[in-house]
Amino acid sequence: MTNRLNQAQPYALGLFRIVVGLLFACHGAASLFGVLGGMNGGTVPTGAWPGWYAAVIQLVCGGLVLLGLGTRGAAFIASGSMAYAYFWAHQPEALFPLQNGGETAALFCWAFALLIFTGPGGLALDALFGGQKAAQGTAQDPNAQDTEKQGTPVTA
Questions:
Q1: Is the pLDDT of residue 156 over 70?
Q2: Which long-range contacts (CB under 8 A, 24 or more apart) does 117-120 make?
Q3: Which end of the chain is more exposed for a tag (fewer CB within 10 A), N or C?
């Protein structure tokens, strides 16, 4: 059972990345364009600090994460923006996210932090534009043999 779950891990991580990226991009689209019921049908004024900039980050980084393009860099920026949102807007109200309404910011922050370290997983466009092993969602074992030098596959 564990072996089958391990084989599915890159695809589960890829689906996680897709869902998180889509939800984040939807927040940005709602704020910038007033779609999806965001901002009570209105939009954030262009150039307004920090709302407009946060919405642009949400839309762009969410879209990149969704597609799996530059996932780690986009996730780093998105995670940082959500940490800023939590500590600037929510944490002064109360200590815990349940008390200050910052659950979404905290969850997005940690979800993107996870993607920084795991990479995009399966189903990512990063794999098409560089064939990176990180794009496959597999961590390299430092104790494993280098298959390019040995000519034999590494099995776990």
A1: no
A2: 118/13, 119/13, 119/71, 119/72, 120/13, 120/14, 120/17, 120/65, 120/68, 120/71, 120/72
A3: N
